[in-house]
Design a protein that fits this description.
Elements: E1 3-9, H1 16-23, E2 30-34, H2 42-46, E3 49-64, H3 74-78, H4 100-104, E4 110-125, E5 128-135, H5 142-159, E6 164-171, H6 175-181, E7 186-191, H7 195-210, E8 215-220, H8 226-238, E9 243-247, H9 251-258, H10 274-284
Parallel strand pairs: 1-6, 1-7, 2-5, 2-6, 7-8, 8-9
Antiparallel strand pairs: 3-4, 4-5
Bound molecules: iron/sulfur cluster (2 copies).
One iron/sulfur cluster binds next to helix 4.
Length: about 280
């Protein structure tokens, strides 16, 4: 069985991606999956080389043949997503590809066509193969693209007999996050000791509980507000979720990221501490 570990956060800017990158060098036999398809920046630190890329067809969208259209307005009134204006122009960003307009059009003027919503990349890295993807700005269905990234990562893991997949998930609680956590072995939630950190942590904890995912929390830069860190720990105790790590703020982490280096591969003390190695052991088993 493949050990799939996802790193998520309720909000952006908690250090999720730099922590994901810091975990990666401690494992062999792994596949890396960047499922943060809106902002896939794990590769900035991992520095993988593209070996293959392809378009991702998210769904089909309607195209109107105006030679056949009689402007009866039926498609406009039938679209539940208000994606067709009263002068019969399709708004692609509102369209959900449900095909109702094609079905109702009495003139056969509407046909559905493949729509590219993003790009998928296969990379070679010094840590193992990596799959990442980028959603075209303004496109939706990022959940589908995340599902595809995870499927490709699993295919590689099975084919190359790799035992582990490390997933960098998206921040937030939208469908792309649900897609990234579904069926994983463990979720690591990264938070920070701020008001918004706690607020968004609550939402993501609710999500992992709802999907019955085994989850533990890392409080990053915990010493920037000991009071808020305490509040986070009290909340997590109530929710019966363990704080697996508390990382202190370290300017060397910031420097390593600015220099495009994975923090755990520099000589930052924390990453050679017992606490860190216990955490790595937890992920391994
Ligand atoms: S339903 Fe068909 S014919 Fe009527 S307005 Fe829409 S595209 Fe034109
Ligand atoms: S496919 Fe569905 S959502 Fe898109 S324009 Fe047609 S009716 Fe509206």
């Amino acid at each position: 069985m493949i050990n799939e570990i996802v790193v998520i956060s309720g909000k952006g800017g908690t250090g999720k991606t730099s922590l994901t990158a810091s975990i990666i060098p401690f494992f062999e036999d792994l596949v890396i999956a960047d499922c943060d398809v809106d902002a896939p920046d794990l590769n900035i630190l991992i520095k993988g080389e593209i070996v293959k890329e392809r378009d991702f067809i998210g769904f089909q969208r309607p195209v109107i043949d105006y030679e056949k259209c009689t402007y009866c307005g039926l498609c406009h009134t039938s679209c539940n997503f208000n994606a067709i204006s009263d002068d019969i122009i399709i708004n692609n960003s509102a369209c959900e590809g449900c095909k109702v307009c094609e079905y109702v059009c009495p003139e056969g003027a509407i046909t559905m066509h493949d729509s590219v919503i993003g790009k998928i990349y296969h990379r070679k890295t010094i840590f193992g193969p990596m799959i990442d993807a980028r959603l075209i700005p303004g496109e939706e269905s990022s959940g589908k693209l995340v599902a595809e990234v995870r499927k490709l990562a699993r295919d590689i893991a099975y084919k190359e007999n790799r035992k582990m997949i490390i997933i960098d998930g998206s921040p937030g609680i939208a469908c792309n996050v649900i897609s990234a956590i579904t069926g994983v072995s463990k979720a690591i939630i990264v938070t920070e000791p701020t008001i918004s950190g706690l607020h968004d942590l609550k939402k993501v904890v609710h999500l992992v509980k709802m999907f019955s995912v085994e989850a533990k929390v890392i409080i990053n830069k915990y010493d920037l507000s000991l009071n808020k860190a305490k509040e986070i720990k009290e909340y997590l105790e109530l929710m019966e979720i363990e704080v697996v790590l508390e990382l202190p703020f370290d300017v060397e982490v910031v420097n390593s990221i600015s220099n495009l280096q994975i923090p755990s591969t520099t000589n930052i003390e924390f990453f050679s501490s017992k606490k860190w190695f216990d955490f790595i052991e937890y992920l391994r088993n």
